[in-house]
Amino acid sequence: MKRLFIAAVGVLALTLTAAASATKPGPGSSTGTGQVFLPNPVAALGNQSLTDQKDADYPALAGAYAMVTLTNLDGSGFLHGDWANIRSETGTPAYSATNTFVYRRDDDRFEQVMAYYWITEAQKYIQSLGFGSTLPPVNRESQDIRINQWGLDNSFSWDKHDVLRFGKGGVDDAEDAEVILHEYGHAIQDAQQSPLGFGFSVEAGSIGEGFADYWAVTVSNVLAPTADTPCVADWDSVSYTSETPHCLRRVDTNLMYPSDLDGRVHHDGQIWSRALWDIRQALGNVVADRIVLAAQFDIPNPTMPELAQRTVQTAQSLYNAGIANTVRAKFQSRGILP
């Protein structure tokens, strides 16, 4: 979840867009063209003065749009594919007989393209690290996504139904790639612990939030590097933060375990995300992300020291003692390991 735990969620009626449009011809092609933010306007333009302006598409945002190739489409003409599936949305489902999905932010279909593109690319990145070939697969499925069907400025991964739900209000959440990637991070961890989910203790929840923040910045940095990588969701946060730089959270804070634990999962998660960030800084994204992902299999409801020790062991298994010692040192610098 982006900012809060959801204790109970009402089931919303599904929009039967695919069935209603089943007679439309599909292009039969697995690639297409889309327009997205890379990863969001504040980060891409380095402009902290940008605001939501009620979903307006105004001139200062023009340079933030980018044309991208959409891959792994199923040929139906909708944003359905191997690794992402826009299952339902508020408004018109994006459809193109030529797989051309070019919208701007004042059109809700823009967010559908954002979610499809970023989740597809995140899964392709996971596979590029060897997961699904030399390593076990990680959430290797068509991830169901609902856009703007949660009427709050919040988003979450709903493990029970295996769906990501993105909210609206302020900057609509799926306009920021790092919010999309954060929620996909939760889906990743839940899939690695199936069928029970990653964990329900406060400490496991903090690890989950920390990993999701880290996942957001590591993937966005690989695909669309920007100046202030450790800042999470710069664009989404302009609607509710007054300080600059605008950040939902950061992965480079100086919080320590256990002295800075206070029971707030998003706060405490910054201890874990900082350790992962330091590992990435030392080893590079490929080595770090292979280790971090591989360590999370089948360790339900862990404490930070338990998962840190597993991560050190994974580094030793995948690489060598030198890499493992580097990983251990980064956890020690946060107080997570002795």
What do these coordinates show?
With 338 residues, the protein is an alpha/beta fold. The protein has a single domain, classed as Neutral Protease, domain 2 (Orthogonal Bundle). It contains nine helices and nine strands. It has helices at 17-20, 41-45, 109-128, 177-192, 202-223, 265-283, 285-295, 304-318, 321-333; strands at residues 32-37, 65-70, 84-89, 100-101, 143-150, 156-158, 163-167, 231-232, 249-250. Strands 3-5-7-6 form a four-stranded mixed sheet, covered by helices on one side. The longest helix is centred in the middle third of the chain and has 22 residues, at 202-223.
Main beta sheet strand tally, sense and closure? 4 strands, mixed
CATH superfamily: Neutral Protease Domain 2
Q: Roughly what is the average pLDDT, rounded to an integer?
A: 88
CATH class: Mainly Alpha
CATH architecture: Orthogonal Bundle
Give me the secondary-structure category.
Answer: alpha/beta
- Gap from first CA to last CA: 30 Å
Measured by DSSP, the beta-strand proportion falls in 5-15%
What is the fold-level CATH name, i.e. the topology?
Answer: Neutral Protease, domain 2
Strand order of the largest sheet: 3-5-7-6
Q: List low-confidence stretches.
A: 1-25
Annotate the secondary structure layout.
Layout: H1 17-20, E1 32-37, H2 41-45, E2 65-70, E3 84-89, E4 100-101, H3 109-128, E5 143-150, E6 156-158, E7 163-167, H4 177-192, H5 202-223, E8 231-232, E9 249-250, H6 265-283, H7 285-295, H8 304-318, H9 321-333
Parallel strand pairs: 1-4, 3-5, 5-7
Antiparallel strand pairs: 1-2, 6-7, 8-9
Helix pairs in contact: 3-4, 4-5, 5-6, 6-7, 6-9, 7-8, 8-9
